[in-house]
């Protein structure tokens, strides 16, 4: 079961219950179609470059460079977007090593974060100031409410920022604002919400829609049309514009002449310069660059030998990820939109949940005695488990309560 397909199904469930909040993660993994589109920077879109494991390719000239050399080549860059796959540890290691290389090169590094809405800026300031323990930060920062992914993927980055006094900036839109744009359009935003967007929103283009379509195969659950697809485009554009604009404003307000804003963001907001970069480029006179890791095996198990040069300014080759470092249960819950918040509305194919026998319609009551009252609680509780663990789930099926053992095991050796 490909991670992309799992995430696509999770986004579909989110669309029916909330606001397509998981749309960005699905664009983080590359498939063959999205890697070879002849779009983006015309100076690079006409050629492809070989992908090298553990090598960083400067797509301007094809050079292979080290992290330190990449930092040197970014000397005139004010904003660096680093695309990520949220559940691939190697992607986060790339982010960490890039931040470290820039800091050691003497740059004033700032880190912009997709996982926090701009309303949570105070908690990041307190973290960098050393006012929180890790446990306090996760609780007061509502990590598993703002972001469903395991804290440990990002832990090294956050510790490094705190220990070196690196400013961290909350970039994202609050969920209600994205939901408003998805369902009603940008004109429905309040003046305060609109203040976090560029003066003008770059419109959808054929290249942008071609990139979006390339991510989803024809039989994918998210191959939708009409108003739902248009709403999804608007939501994605909302994220692009808000995160790009908030990063730019923070850089201009708090950064010195030597500052670089490093934005950690889903790769779908970065590739080909069609996401956040396109939204803020008209309002920034400095240089914007991008770094996107690419695995040497795509989400369908096919080898990746070359990548379109316009995919990103720098491309870092990574090994295939056979399984996520930290397990995921693989269900979506009804949440506050239904009578039973723990009711399962989707079970991902080949997931831990499916193999354990969880079914759509089951109500997840507790895990090892901890009451599951929301998706946030489920994410927080399940983050403590590791491959090889076993979980006792209390469920209600057809009105009858029962215990179900859930072995937390990988599907492949």
Give a structural overview:
This protein has 413 residues and is of the alpha/beta class. It is 35% helix and 21% strand. The protein has helices at residues 3-17, 23-26, 32-35, 67-73, 89-104, 121-128, 134-140, 143-146, 155-163, 175-184, 191-194, 206-215, 226-254, 276-280, 352-356, 375-382; strands spanning 48-50, 56-58, 64-65, 77-84, 108-117, 167-172, 259-266, 287-295, 306-308, 314-318, 331-333, 344-347, 363-367, 370-371, 390-397, 400-407. The strands form 4 sheets. It has an 8-stranded mixed beta sheet with strand order 3-2-10-8-4-7-5-6, with helices on both faces. Strands 14-13-15-16 form a 4-stranded antiparallel beta sheet. The protein has a two-stranded antiparallel sheet with strand order 1-9. Helix 4 packs across helix 5. The chain is globular and about 65 Å long.
CATH 2nd-level architecture of the largest domain = 3-Layer(aba) Sandwich
Question: Uncertain spans, ≥5 residues at pLDDT below 50?
Answer: 1-29
Helix content: 25-40%
Question: Biggest sheet: strands, sense, closure?
Answer: 8 strands, mixed
CATH fold-level topology of the largest domain: Rossmann fold
Radius of gyration: 21 Å
Q: CATH class of the largest domain, anyone?
A: Alpha Beta
The dominant shape is: globular
Helices and strands: which structural class? alpha/beta
Distance between the termini: 14 Å
Number of beta-strand segments: 16
- In the sheet with the most strands, the strands line up as 3-2-10-8-4-7-5-6
